[in-house]
Amino acid sequence: MSAQAPSAVILIRAQRFLPNPATAADNAFQQDVPPGQSDAATSTAALAEMDAVAEALRGAGVRVHVFEDHDHTRPDSVFPNNWLSTHAGGTIAVYPMYASNRRHERRADVLELLKSEYRVQTIVDYSGLEPDGIFLEGTGAMVLDHVSRVAYTAISHRADTHVLERFCTDFGYEPMAFDAVDSAGVPVYHTNVIACIGTDVALIALGMIPDEQRREQVRERLSVNGRTVVELSEEQIREFAGNAVELCGRTPEGRRRYVMAMSARARRSLRPDQVAAIEESCEIVAVDIPTIELAGGSVRCMIAGVHLDRRPAHVPTELTEAVRAINEDHPVTADGRYVDTLAP
């Protein structure tokens, strides 16, 4: 498994989906449902898009855990990356959420699945900071470089620098916070709409960082280990070109391959040279999700990556007894190899 690109993901299959009115004030990417389109039709269309994303990722050889959500009071539950992140070494983080109607997106069954199928040592829960008005919305607020251990963060009321420092201390990351705004001076609400970090390539709208010195520091930090930096324009950001994520899949033959998952809209916004730069290290997997993008997030927001080691498959008792019998007949060396007593 790659340190940067997880080979398994969590998706939430929400039976009801609508752009969240509680997040519209500060999410400049959010749009209204087309006039005359019913809530039922919107939810049905979004459900089909969620299934298409799951199918595309499975087709790329990525392990996909899908959780159904029948709660009609969670309009943004399709975006689990805001409340959950997982980390190598067996640690999970749970985050404080800005919108009060998003806080019950946190689900015990998701955590239980992770504990049962992966090696989980610790769950660090920051959600108790919500009553104090302190928020850090997961890998929406932070774009994490798991290789160089840097947490890139556009400062906003959804990304408090104090809890960012606390997260970085707890998880061993270097905080790199910066202001990011659009051409109208509106702050970027989530870092992951302007930046995506892969193993060998990064996509980022450096021009939306107004402080020139900080902009160059970010550029240098991203490229210090030879990573290619693909600069995105503000226009491409509005097409969700920055809201992508690198994953580690498998070919039908079992060979590892890296894929860059994004929306079809994002893919169409990229220039040929940008596509070529990405495809030097990743295969682009693009899925059309226009309904979900009405809520102001795209494919990256839909994916909570699993950076945990899998537990070994459960071995039935009868098989365990058979192995014990074999061990009794065939002694085992100190390094665990069977000794064939018939060998010369």
Automatic annotation (TrEMBL):
Classification via Gene3D superfamilies: L-arginine/glycine Amidinotransferase, Chain A
Key words of the record: Transferase
Keyword Transferase recorded: yes
SUPFAM superfamilies: Pentein (SSF55909)
GO molecular function: transferase activity
Family annotation (InterPro entries): Amdntrnsf_FN0238
Keyword Transferase: yes
Source superkingdom: Bacteria
Protein name: Amidinotransferase
